[in-house]
Write a structure and sequence with these properties.
It contains 17 helices and eleven strands. The chain has 478 residues and is an alpha/beta fold. The strands form two sheets. Strands 6, 7, 8, 9, 10 and 11 form a six-stranded mixed β-sheet that branches.
């Protein structure tokens, strides 16, 4: 049986993921593994069609395809995204059609679900028979249970190949752009007068042409404030994140000032009150150019850099068929401390509907700025920060010393249960008291009232009549 492994790490063979692949090679000697490293060699693949064609030929000759990758900011790395874009651009999808596929990742389970959903959706778009995903914690290979799970995953994959895995979709087909002209600024009624916020607004985009440019223009034109647009195509970007962890101790990127990325974050995004991502959807995610810029933001490591910022997303493409992308974008903004006001796409409706949705988004942003309103994070943001809190408090503090200092200084560790001994003691005491049968029976019978007790004081202090001036104030944000 021939198995091609498509490596998704910019570190190539020296990645943690490849150690899992090496283990599979040792445990399954009957399988012929052909390991390719498209993410590691992405520049070569772009410059040399022959090198790209060698990988595609190996795919066409394989009995199965294993996508093997680490996680990079809610998905795979930008270099892997670029390889997937090249499959489209060079019309090489035919080599993948009908092939059984599976995905293997290594991480600490931070948005592994969106990365695996992305790879599965890409596989389905290529007409592949996707079998299974295996998300391994980085140190699972050192544990007997982790090794058994890895072997079980690969056994399942081989069995499916041998018995003819069916092509079954779980994601809807990709939406395609309509032939309708791009939304035209002024095609819908503009706000009576430009919104004035007195705040700094920065848009980072991977394109200032076509449909996305029109969407950006509509958004910008509703503000009286100066809106700064950063066109990534005009920046010097030396490459995507290398995963070298040079930034771990002091948040200093190995690229340094060899290109414009770090200075753009520091000078354009950090001071902004409103941060807007404007991107083109390609193969189920935003473009590899935008992904490269987002990945390079990892010089912050696991320290939120959007704290207190109002955030919006403008997309050229379809979001309705891309649930993983929606979750990835929402999770990224929330765990970075930002307040996501909404996502508008060029396919949110006809031209007038897109304009109306954009105007509504800008008004929400203006009102949020005026009222200093920040949306509370959902599970996507809360769960994300707790994953890093727990691991950086222990094993990851060895590498990410900068994170460890930041978390300690900013009180993130204070949310650890053992950091509040008096609070824990109080809960234990209440638990002991309510465990006595007579008290417990009374509590169970009156559980609804029991749960509402803490809220009574707050409601008692709340103003019972609305302030008419405040009601009037809410009616306008201009």
């Amino acid at each position: 049986m021939k198995m091609i492994v498509l490596g998704g790490s910019p570190k190539g063979e020296k990645s943690v993921t490849m150690q899992y692949v090496e283990y599979l090679k040792l445990k399954f000697p009957e399988v012929s593994f052909d390991v390719k490293q498209p993410a590691f060699r992405i520049r070569r693949l772009e410059q040399s069609p022959e090198v790209f064609d060698d990988i595609i030929k190996a795919v066409s000759q394989a009995d199965g395809v294993l996508w093997a990758f680490p996680l990079y900011v809610h998905s795979v790395c930008s270099q892997y995204h670029r390889f997937i874009e090249l499959i489209d651009e060079r019309e090489a999808g035919g080599a993948f059609a009908g092939k059984p596929a599976a995905a293997l990742s290594t991480s600490i389970h931070f948005f592994d679900n969106t990365a695996h959903d992305f790879i599965r959706a890409v596989s389905e778009d290529l007409g592949m028979a996707f079998v299974d995903s295996h998300s391994a914690n980085m140190n699972d290979l050192m544990k007997p249970a982790g090794r058994r799970a890895l072997e079980g995953f690969f056994d399942t994959f081989m069995d499916a190949i041998g018995n003819g895995a069916p092509v079954v979709r779980i994601f809807p087909p990709r939406g395609t752009a309509t032939d309708e002209p791009a939304p035209n600024p002024g095609s819908a009624t503009m706000n009576p007068e430009p919104l004035r916020t007195g705040k700094r607004i920065t848009i980072v985009t991977d394109s200032t042409d076509g449909r996305l440019a029109t969407l950006i223009n509509r958004f910008s034109s509703t503000f009286e404030d100066d809106v700064e647009i950063v066109d990534l195509r005009k920046l010097r970007i030396a490459g995507g994140c290398m995963g070298c962890l040079h930034c771990g101790p002091k948040n200093v990127c190995r690229y340094g000032n060899t290109d414009d990325v770090i200075n753009t974050y520091i000078e354009k995004i950090h001071p902004a009150d409103v941060f807007v991502i404007a991107a083109t959807i390609k193969r189920r995610w935003y473009s590899s150019l935008m992904k490269s810029f987002i990945d390079r933001g990892f010089f912050h490591t696991h320290q939120p850099f959007l704290n207190g910022k109002q955030v919006a997303v403008l997309l050229d493409g379809d979001i309705t068929s891309n649930p993983a992308l929606r979750d990835g974008l929402t999770g990224f903004v929330e765990w970075q401390g930002g307040s996501l006001n909404g996502i508008v796409t060029t396919m949110s409706g006809n031209a007038s509907e897109v304009d109306a949705a954009t105007d509504s988004l800008t008004r929400r942003i203006a009102l949020a700025l005026k009222k200093d309103y920040l949306r509370p994070a959902t599970f996507l943001g809360v769960g994300g920060i707790k994953i890093f809190r727990d691991d950086i408090y222990t094993r990851l503090s060895i590498v990410f010393r900068g994170d460890h200092k930041y978390y300690r200084k900013n009180g993130i560790y204070k949310t650890l249960p053992h950091k509040k001994p008096l609070r824990l003691m109080m809960f234990r005491l209440i638990g002991l008291i309510t465990s006595f049968p007579p008290i417990n029976r009374k509590m169970v019978v009156n559980m609804k009232d029991f749960m509402l007790m803490p809220y009574r004081g707050v409601l008692k202090k709340a103003t019972t009549t609305a302030d008419t001036s405040e009601v009037k104030d809410r009616s306008s944000v201009a």
